[in-house]
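Final report, closing paragraph on structural work. Over the funding period we assembled a curated collection of sequence-structure pairs, and we close with a single example.
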Amino acid sequence: MNNRQIENMIYDYLHYEIDFKEIIKKYGISKSTFYRILKKNGFKTRSGYFKSIETGIDKLNYRLQQKYSGIVKKCQQRNYKGKTYKGLEYLKLNDWVNFCNSNKEKLKELWNDYIKSGKDKRLAVSIDRINNNKGYIVENMRFVTNGYNLWRRNIRPVKIKYKNKWYYFMSAEEGARYFDVRRQSIGDLLRGDYRKISKDYTVKESSIKEVLSNSVVDNTEDYYEKYIYS
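Its predicted structure, as stored:
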C-alpha cells in the first residue's frame, strides 16, 4: 500500500466512514495487517481511543463515547430516528478524544453538578454547536448543560415597553411570563398586529447584545443561570 492509501484507510477508520469489515475488504488486507499499519503510523484502535478519555469518571467517559456515536449517526444519517445533520462536518475519533481531554475540567464540573442535582435532565452534559450552520468541529463546539442548549436554540430577543420603561428578554415567551400575558399576544404585537393589550405594551425586536447589556450579565450562559434555570 502507498502512503495515500494508508492515509485514506486510517481516515475511513477514525471517521467511521464505513464498517471495519468493509475497510478490510476495501483495502484487501487482514485484520492483523491493518492493526500493524495503524500502530506503525502512531494511531490507536477505536476502543483504545475511547479508553484514552481522561475525565477520571467512568460513567462520564462512557457518556462521551455515546455522544460521539450520536454525532456520527446524525451526520451520516445512519440508524438515527431524530433530527439529522447529514452532510455536516464532524471530528475524527482521535480529534474528538483530544477535544474531550482539553475540556475535561469543564466536563467534570458539569457532570458533578448533574449528579448532585439528582440527575436533573436540564443539567445533563450537552454539546452546543455555536453556529448552527456549521458542524461538529473544534472551533464550533462547547460543552454546556442540556437545559441551556435547548433554551439557546429558541433565542429570539425582544424588548417590551410598559409604562414608559423598556424591558429586555431573550424571547417573546420569556417576556410573556414576566408580564403574565399570553405569549401569542406578545408575538402578535411584535408582528404589528393589534391586540387589547396594545394600549399598554409595545414590542420590538432586540439583539442578544442589547439584552445582555440590560441584564447585568456578560454572556448567554450566565443569563440562563440567572433568569431561566433558577
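DSSP finds twelve helices and five strands in the chain. The longest helix spans residues 58-76. We thank the funder for supporting this effort.
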